[in-house]
Amino acid sequence: MKTKSKLFILAIAVIATTSSFAQKKEIKASESSIQWTGKKVTGSHTGTLNLSEGSIVFDGDKITGGEFTVDMTSLAVTDLQAGKGKEDLEGHLNSDDFFGVTNHKTAKLVIKKAKKSENGYSILGDLTIKGKTNPVKFILTVKGNTASTILTVDRTDYDIKYGSGSFFDNLGDKTINDEFELAVNLKM
Tens digit of pLDDT for each residue in 77-100? Predict the structure, then answer.
């Protein structure tokens, strides 16, 4: 019996010393930023979103996971001055034509795989917007306690089809690009 106990303790010690320990780094939401850009035939609009919470999991110097929640109720337009035009666009983006914020107050990104490369980390994740989840790929650059990326999202993957030339004919100069960009800067 003593031999079995010693072998068990030895096996635990070997596993503990050969395994790396994951470290979860919390994101400082108030110091992080998300800037969006949406384009249309006649120009573009820009704005911001707030991160509610997030974390990146490291095993040594390798990313092994992570999860981020975005507060969709914080959606703001930054390229228009305060007034009716800004209010109308923000209201439209919050409506069911776009992000349906009344019923979908958050969006979420979960890192599924990460591979270190010369440019940072090649990330494969699941992005959930408006209750729909789709895979996304992007490069995440990590320097010290900051991480950043530019993520391109096809809104039609999330049933956001308003003004899309892929679904509607004869929109002319009212056509809105299917893809929008998110410039994300995270502080850990």
Answer: 999 999 999 999 999 999 999 999
Question: Amino acid identity of 160?
Answer: I
* 119-129 per-position pLDDT tens digit: 899 999 999 99
How far apart are alpha carbons 37 and 88 in whole angstroms?
A: 17
Terminal Cα-to-Cα distance of the chain (whole angstroms): 48
Measuring CA to CA, which residue among 144, 148, 175 is closest to residue 68?
A: 148
Asked whether the beta carbons of 30 and 172 are under 8 A apart, the reply is no
**How many other C-beta atoms lie within 10 A of the C-beta of residue 106?**
14
Cα–Cα dist 55/27, whole Å: 5
Q: CA nearest 27: which of 176, 139, 140? A: 140
- Find out whether 155 and 178 touch, Cβ atoms under 8 Å: yes
**More confident site: 114 or 118:** 114
One-letter amino acid of 118: E
Cα(49)–Cα(74) distance, rounded to whole angstroms?
5
DSSP secondary structure, 19-86, as one string: S--EEEEEP-GGG-EEEEEEEETTEEEEEEEEEEEEEEEEETTEEEEEEEEEEEEEEEE-SS-TTHHH
Give the residue from 54, 55, 90, 53 showing the smallest Cα distance to 73. 90
